[in-house]
């Protein structure tokens, strides 16, 4: 009787979770709207980088600066590379290069200028990064799993895509990208409050904030989806959803803010407990934020959930290798948006990021292939595909600072070290990291993040000129160590909460034997 009640309880958990999430979202939205309505007009329009001119040629931002007019103002540019005016005076506005002129220049303020070329590229880059998760990562993971679990992996990635979209809108973006806290931002932009057609996230940006928001949303989507591969084929769907939500809040968002939101990873003028004055971590596209963060979460999760039934004795080979190769190819193509898009502009840095991404990926794939060929006698399709992903991971943090020679170094290192981690290291310690999330993303992210401090030097063709290599590599290492500890603790907490709410995060033996396709979704991935 107790088991029957417990089973019924856990079956209803997904519905309860969805209802609770919806209630929370609508409640927060109502509070946001009420707060917005009560705020004085001057407070709503205080930020020069996101202010919307409500209309009229005489309207000015509350702080007196030259702000971007809203879609209702008379001075809105038509989307081209045109001069941007302040909506009122004849002296304000910006030059074509985005430098301040007239009144704005005298006050030391910079007014952002929309660049249609940058915007067009970033819209494409955003689509490419979303393409990495659905369908790229989904197919890559799905092919590596067993036939009876392929649909469950695809559904988990799809559901995470939807869930993270809503969380990023509700509060994730605001907590990550606003404020000057060391770990978290503020709720000033919950539900994109105050963000309109003419808004910019930063005076330096040449793309609308809506595009920047959506681009970063795709990063928030793929990071928890990566973790799925570590506990594939044995975690309940309800537990996956709850874990992903909690982990996003307590791990992804704060690490994003620490690395990219002006938080702990930048020492500034005075320094902080982690970084000295003037020290700054170089993480161009997410070595720590995405890959180390997800990789460590995957390691902790696979250990806490436990090994798959029959692991080490039963045959658990990939059921569809062509699917895995197709997924890997999609990831490779999409990664150009991931890395080159992180420049937020169509310029030389973006072009070099694209080049080094290609070089590092090819180098890692070839390295993995030859190491495996030497070790096992044959180069496998899964091996070269996994090696390519390892190269993509490792070059990510260095893609904005490394040159071709640096990319070659990072690619070769990632191919060799990730192969060792996914085979020898995993075998030695016996953990069941189903699809090598830690071995590829965790280890590859660590390798790339640390080597960024080497390959950014102009001696290796990097763009950061001359600097103390050992000092910068130590700065990079500190960020990696902090991310490892933070993600591990956050993952443990998230799994414990998910376990309590679902009556156990792991599928029972019968469901695992049957396969999660039928057990969780009542459908089979294949008709026969």
Q: What does the model show?
A:
This protein is mostly helical and 528 residues long. Helix content is 61%, strand content 0%. It contains 16 helices and no strands. It has helices spanning 2-38, 41-44, 102-106, 116-144, 150-177, 209-227, 237-260, 287-305, 321-340, 348-376, 381-395, 404-429, 437-455, 469-502, 509-514, 516-521. Helix 5 runs parallel beside helix 7. The protein is globular, with a radius of gyration of 24 Å. Mean pLDDT is 86; it is low at 1-16, 29-34 and 36-106.
Indicate the proportion of strand residues: under 5%
Name the overall outline: globular
How many distinct beta strands?
0
Number of helices: 16
- Average pLDDT confidence is 86
Major sheet characteristics:
none
Global structural class: mainly alpha
Low-confidence stretches: 1-16, 29-34, 36-106
Q: What proportion of the residues is helical, as a percent range?
A: 55-70%
Rg over CA atoms: 24 Å
What is the straight-line distance between the termini? 36 Å
Order of helices and strands: HHHHHHHHHHHHHHHH
Provide keyphrases for this structure.
528 residues, 16 helices, 0% strand, globular, disordered N terminus, mainly alpha
Write the layout of secondary structure elements.
Layout: H1 2-38, H2 41-44, H3 102-106, H4 116-144, H5 150-177, H6 209-227, H7 237-260, H8 287-305, H9 321-340, H10 348-376, H11 381-395, H12 404-429, H13 437-455, H14 469-502, H15 509-514, H16 516-521
Précis, in short:
It contains 16 helices and no strands. With 528 residues, it is mostly helical. The chain is globular, with a radius of gyration of 24 Å.
């Amino acid at each position: 009787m107790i088991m029957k009640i417990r089973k019924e309880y856990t079956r209803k958990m997904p519905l309860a979770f969805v209802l609770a999430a919806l209630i929370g979202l609508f409640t927060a939205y109502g509070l946001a709207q009420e707060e917005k309505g009560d705020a004085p007009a001057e407070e709503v329009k205080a930020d020069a980088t996101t202010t919307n001119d409500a209309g009229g040629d005489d309207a000015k931002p509350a702080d007196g600066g030259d702000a971007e007019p809203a879609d209702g103002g008379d001075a809105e540019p038509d989307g081209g590379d045109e001069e941007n005016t302040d909506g009122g005076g004849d002296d304000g506005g910006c030059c074509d290069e985005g430098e301040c002129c007239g009144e704005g220049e005298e006050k030391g303020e910079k007014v952002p200028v929309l660049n249609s070329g940058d915007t067009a590229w970033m819209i494409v880059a955003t689509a490419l990064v979303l393409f990495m998760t659905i369908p790229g990562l989904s197919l890559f993971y799905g092919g590596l799993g067993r036939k009876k679990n392929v649909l469950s992996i695809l559904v988990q990635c799809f559901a995470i895509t939807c869930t993270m979209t809503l969380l990023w809108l509700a509060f994730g973006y605001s907590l990550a990208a606003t404020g000057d806290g060391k770990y978290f931002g503020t709720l000033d932009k919950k539900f994109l409050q105050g963000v309109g057609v003419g808004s910019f996230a930063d005076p330096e940006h040449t793309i609308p904030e809506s595009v920047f928001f959506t681009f970063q949303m795709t990063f928030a989507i793929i990071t928890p989806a990566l973790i799925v591969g570590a506990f594939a084929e044995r975690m309940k769907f309800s537990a996956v959803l709850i874990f992903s939500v909690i982990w996003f809040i307590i791990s992804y968002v704060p690490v994003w803010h620490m690395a990219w939101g002006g938080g702990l990873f930048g020492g500034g003028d005075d320094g902080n407990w982690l970084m000295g004055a003037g020290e700054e971590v170089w993480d161009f596209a997410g070595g720590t934020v995405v890959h180390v963060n997800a990789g460590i979460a995957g390691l902790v999760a696979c250990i806490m959930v436990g090994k798959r039934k029959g692991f080490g004795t039963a045959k658990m080979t990939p059921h569809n290798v062509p699917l895995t190769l197709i997924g890997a190819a999609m990831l490779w193509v999409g990664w150009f948006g991931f890395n080159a898009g992180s420049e937020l502009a169509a310029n030389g840095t973006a072009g070099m990021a694209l080049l080094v991404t290609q070089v590092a990926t090819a180098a890692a794939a070839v390295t993995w292939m030859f190491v495996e060929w030497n070790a096992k006698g044959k180069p496998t399709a899964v091996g070269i595909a996994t090696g390519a992903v390892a190269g993509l991971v490792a070059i990510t943090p260095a893609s904005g600072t490394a040159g071709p020679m640096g990319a070659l170094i990072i690619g070769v290192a990632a191919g060799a070290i990730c192969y060792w981690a996914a085979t020898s290291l995993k075998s030695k310690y016996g953990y069941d990291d189903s699809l090598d999330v830690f071995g590829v993303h965790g280890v590859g992210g660590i390798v790339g993040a640390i080597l960024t401090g080497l390959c950014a030097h102009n001696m290796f063709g990097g763009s950061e000129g001359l600097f103390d290599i050992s000092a910068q590599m130590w700065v990079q290492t500190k960020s990696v160590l902090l991310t490892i500890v933070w993600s591990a603790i956050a993952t443990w907490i998230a799994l414990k909460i998910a376990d309590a709410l679902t009556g156990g995060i792991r599928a029972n033996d019968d469901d695992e034997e049957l396969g999660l396709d039928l057990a969780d979704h009542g459908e089979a991935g294949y008709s026969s």
